[in-house]
């Protein structure tokens, strides 16, 4: 059965309702031809120029991502230059190549699928979201899990293996952890939420220095994976969602992003 771009967006918004997104977020279609028939669908973490070109080169006319092209529209759209933000070139290239781009950001973050996904990578089961710990059935940001007693250092090593990174850890490596919180992306105010809900540690993407310091000193260790590492598993959720929406699995593929950053201790550098 043929599906057009608008109907694919509609089906995905059924799975990740726009009402679950933050008011400042930009979810759904950002650019493209609503009436175009879907040929192939590429899925990626980021809606940038690299992903757009990779989608087009592989025969896809739809790019579905977690991160939006932009949260606020830039002043102009055009080829990549030092004067314009990178999102300008991403949108310009998508329109020029005929690739429709749609994103599911904080509405996906609040989904049950996201809540389950991150803890599952470490063999844990979420009891509720971090946002609504008193209502296990409610959608909400993050996850709260109970686990067998484990030293923080061992927990961090498990996270390193599960997410393929070298985490930065705030807290005593020998400290025993029994309650673990997860949050994809930035910690922000959810460090406070984790502390209030008795988490011994929170595994997330990134956090400001003072936020991580404060949370760790108040008894909740912080394991920082890197923003991208903490949310790359969401691409798998999107692939499953696109297939569930009615696109053949053989016409859905994932774009693995190139390495965007490195640390000075990396052996290859």
Structure description:
- This protein is of the alpha/beta class and 269 residues long.
- The protein folds into two domains: 5-106 and 233-254, 3-Layer(aba) Sandwich (Udp-n-acetylmuramoylalanyl-d-glutamate--2,6- Diaminopimelate Ligase, Chain: A, domain 1); 122-230, NIF3 (NGG1p interacting factor 3)-like (Udp-n-acetylmuramoylalanyl-d-glutamate--2,6- Diaminopimelate Ligase, Chain: A, domain 1).
- The protein is 33% helix and 20% strand.
- It contains ten helices and eleven strands.
- The strands form two sheets. The protein has a six-stranded mixed beta sheet with strand order 5-6-8-9-10-7. A five-stranded mixed beta sheet has the order 1-4-3-2-11, with helices on both faces.
- Strand 2 (41-44), helix 2 (49-57) and strand 3 (62-65) form a beta-alpha-beta unit.
- Helix 2 packs parallel to helix 3.
- The longest helix is centred in the middle third of the chain and has 12 residues, at 86-97.
- The radius of gyration is 19 Å and the shape is globular.
- The model has no long low-confidence stretch (mean pLDDT 95).
């Amino acid at each position: 059965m043929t599906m057009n771009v608008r109907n694919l967006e509609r089906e995905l918004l059924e799975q990740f309702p726009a009402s679950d997104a933050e008011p400042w977020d930009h979810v759904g279609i950002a650019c493209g031809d609503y009436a175009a028939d879907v040929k192939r669908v590429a899925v990626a973490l980021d809606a940038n120029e690299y992903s757009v070109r990779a989608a087009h080169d592989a025969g896809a006319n739809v790019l579905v991502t977690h991160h939006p092209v932009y949260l606020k529209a830039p002043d102009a759209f055009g080829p990549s230059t030092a004067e314009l933000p990178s999102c300008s070139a991403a949108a310009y290239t998508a329109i020029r190549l005929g690739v429709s781009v749609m994103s599911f950001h904080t509405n996906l973050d609040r989904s049950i699928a996201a809540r389950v996904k991150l803890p599952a990578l470490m063999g844990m089961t979420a009891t509720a979201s971090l946002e609504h710990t008193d209502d296990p059935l409610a959608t909400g940001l993050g996850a709260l899990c109970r686990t067998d007693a484990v030293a923080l250092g061992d927990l961090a090593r498990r996270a390193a293996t599960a997410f393929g990174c070298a985490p930065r850890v705030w807290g005593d490596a020998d400290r025993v952890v029994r309650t673990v919180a997860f949050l994809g992306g930035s910690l922000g105010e959810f460090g406070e939420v984790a502390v209030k809900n008795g988490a011994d540690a929170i595994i997330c993407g990134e956090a400001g220095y003072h936020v991580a310091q404060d949370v760790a000193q108040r008894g909740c260790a912080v394991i920082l994976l890197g923003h991208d590492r903490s949310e790359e598993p969401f691409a798998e959720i999107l692939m499953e969602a696109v297939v569930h929406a009615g696109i053949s699995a053989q016409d859905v593929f994932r774009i693995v992003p190139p390495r965007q950053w490195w640390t000075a201790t990396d052996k290859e550098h």
